[in-house]
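We were asked to recover a plausible sequence for a given structure. The inputs and outputs are reproduced exactly as logged, with field labels preserved.

PROBLEM: sequence recovery
POSITIONS: 332
GIVEN STRUCTURE:
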């Protein structure tokens, strides 16, 4: 189950006993309040959807980024707008005129987004933050480390290292991101060995999704403290929230976030840092109160148990709202 729009969702819940339906209830979930204005943005090469809470005077702004599935994901941005935040959901590949692959995406594109928010009247321009999921979590930390206008950052099941691009042709390796026309330093994934090739063939024959955690773990073994691919999160101009699932099978978000916390302590980072661990949860932790039993892919193993993912989603949402409330209260 993947929800990317803010359209209302309708669910039917049935209770059956010996194949006989004894109770049936239809529930409609409205995701966007009537007091939130939705605006599609397409100008100067920038695309996205802006949500403005009309009942709030000078609301803080949050840039919301999706992961390596690409395209435009409005769900989290729309839901946050219900709580009084002006949000800007931004796709960065696989959408309209944007690149088809997650390869050397220019950071200047996100500079445009920050500048666009700065031109919108009625916002609190000293309270602009960023929230990214998965690969977007990596990106959120990267953007925050490069642009001082970002005053708080959320990396949800993300990591603190720039990895190679996603969707590259075989044996070609380059960065996911670029700046000033040049690819940023990155950690390459190991080229396929015979054992990895065998695992992929086995998964394909058995139609089982593939876990990529071991590939990323092997790549991280070569990322020492002075490696240029490490994101300088200590340059972020505000508090940071990190999240991870202990059963993340896409990449080792828990250990990567531990490294971020260790680095920030060593660098004497002056702002608050919080790392949330979700026990037995996987990588696909979305906003709460959506079905978690259907969050599976034929190609990718996300990890996580159904109940653990549901609890993690609920906890994440509560902690995210608390983090945003505290962060925007201090950035006046």
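RECOVERED SEQUENCE:
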């Amino acid at each position: 189950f993947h929800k990317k729009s803010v359209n209302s969702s309708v669910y039917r819940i049935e209770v059956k006993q010996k194949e006989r339906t004894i109770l049936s209830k239809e529930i409609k979930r409205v995701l966007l309040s009537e007091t939130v204005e939705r605006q599609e943005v397409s100008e100067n090469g920038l695309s996205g959807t802006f949500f403005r809470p009309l009942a709030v005077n000078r609301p803080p702004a949050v840039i919301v980024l999706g992961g390596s599935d690409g395209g435009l994901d409005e769900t989290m941005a729309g839901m946050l707008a219900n709580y009084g935040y002006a949000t800007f959901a931004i796709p960065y590949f696989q959408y309209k005129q944007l690149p088809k692959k997650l390869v050397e995406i220019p950071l200047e594109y996100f500079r445009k987004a920050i500048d666009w928010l700065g031109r919108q009247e009625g916002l609190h321009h000293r309270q602009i933050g960023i929230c990214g999921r998965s690969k977007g979590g990596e990106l959120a930390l990267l953007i925050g480390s490069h642009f001082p206008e970002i005053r708080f950052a959320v990396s949800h099941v993300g990591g603190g290292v720039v990895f190679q691009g996603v969707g590259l042709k075989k044996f070609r390796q380059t960065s996911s991101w670029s700046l000033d026309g040049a690819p940023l330093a990155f950690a390459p994934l190991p080229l396929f060995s015979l054992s990895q090739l065998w695992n992929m063939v086995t998964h394909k024959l058995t139609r089982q999704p593939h876990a990529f955690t071991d590939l990323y773990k092997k790549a991280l073994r070569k990322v020492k403290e002075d490696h240029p691919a490490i994101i300088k999160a200590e340059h972020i101009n505000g508090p940071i929230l990190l999240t991870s699932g202990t059963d993340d099978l896409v990449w080792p978000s828990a250990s990567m976030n531990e490294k971020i916390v260790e680095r920030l302590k060593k660098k004497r980072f002056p702002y608050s840092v919080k790392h949330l661990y979700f026990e037995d949860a996987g990588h696909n932790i979305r906003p709460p109160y959506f079905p978690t039993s259907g969050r599976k892919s034929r190609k990718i193993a996300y990890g996580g148990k159904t109940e653990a993912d549901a609890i993690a989603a609920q906890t994440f949402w509560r902690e995210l709202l608390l983090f945003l409330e505290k962060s925007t209260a201090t950035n006046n």
